[in-house]
Amino acid sequence: MTAGTLERASIKPRKKKMRRSLYEEMSAYLLMLPYALLFTLFIAAPVAIAIGLSFTFYDIIQVPNYVGFLNYIILMTQDEIFLRYVLPNTFTFALMIGPGGFVLSFLIAWMLAQIQRIPRTLIALAMYAPSMAGGVFVAIVWRTVFSGNERGFINAALINWGFIVEPIQFLQDPTYLLPLMIFVTLWSSMGVGFLAILAGVLNYDPEIYEAAQLDGINNRFQEIVYITVPTMKPQMLFGAVMAIVNAFQMGQVGVLLSGSNPTPQYAGQLIFNHIEDFALMRFELGYAAAISVVLLIMVWGLSKVAYAMFSEK
């Protein structure tokens, strides 16, 4: 057999292997194509459009007029509602709902992991159910509970017990509105992040805990800090990101409780409500887009912090 024949014989398997590899790569890209199209259509494209509109004055009727960074300058220097009410309310709300809701999810998941399977499943379902109902419960249940007349459950109980004479306007009084928003949101914040954390807590290796006891870990707090949290970082990261997103997208709760946007004396006005105010009521879409870009940057920055805390790298 000549050298040329040997070379041709060795080329054929290589070509066949290359074709098979190319086919496998093409199959992978085809499987990714539906997700890529949906991601581009519903996420990437709207974000790009919002960033572009944030540099314009656009009121739906006229053609967008390029104004540069004017919207951002006005937002950060002249928008008194944003600087005086929206930012403080948003940071207070996000601090309580983000880290607070994340810690609450972990503690509840950890406590549920200590009980038997059937009651654990029932309680977990009860905790998760409000996150699926969301706005329906806010609009019906909690507005009834905190209603500002004698028919409200809280007011009726306080009047019957002799604590007050006239009903308290819980949902219209600036003193109560933001705390009630935080309470209602925490009540409905046990969503998919909570389920992911619960799955991470339940998916543990008993041998690790037994070895830790031999190394001197002898209480539950040390187990959580040195074993439970480090072994479930992917679930903790997912739960943290979901808590951050939930904290910034639940701005509608103040409007649903109070029944108005802006909320009474801007007591429950969050950045989400500020966007809705300018986009859907004043039709200043360029300015609303600038506010939404600021919101996007805030969520992205906090997500990077969560990634740095719980990433396994």
Describe the structure.
- The radius of gyration is 27 Å and the shape is flat.
- Helix 3 (80-112) runs parallel beside helix 7 (174-187), helix 11 runs antiparallel to helix 14 and helix 13 runs antiparallel to helix 14 (285-310).
- A two-stranded antiparallel ribbon has the order 1-2.
- It is built from 14 helices and two strands, in the order αββααααααααααααα.
- With 313 residues, it is mostly helical.
Mean of all residue-level pLDDT scores: 82
- Number of helical elements: 14
The radius of gyration computed from the alpha-carbon positions, rounded to a whole number of angstroms, is 27 Å
Let me know the number of strands.
Answer: 2
Overall body shape: flat
DSSP helix fraction: over 70%
Strand arrangement within the widest β-sheet reads 1-2
Beta-strand proportion? under 5%
Largest sheet: 2 strands, antiparallel
List keywords for this structure.
single chain, 313 residues, mainly alpha, two-stranded antiparallel ribbon, 75% helix
Could you give the topology of this structure?
Elements: H1 3-53, E1 56-57, E2 65-66, H2 70-77, H3 80-112, H4 117-133, H5 135-145, H6 153-160, H7 174-187, H8 192-202, H9 206-214, H10 220-231, H11 233-249, H12 252-258, H13 271-281, H14 285-310
Antiparallel strand pairs: 1-2
Helix pairs in contact: 1-14, 3-7, 3-8, 3-11, 5-12, 7-12, 8-11, 11-14, 13-14
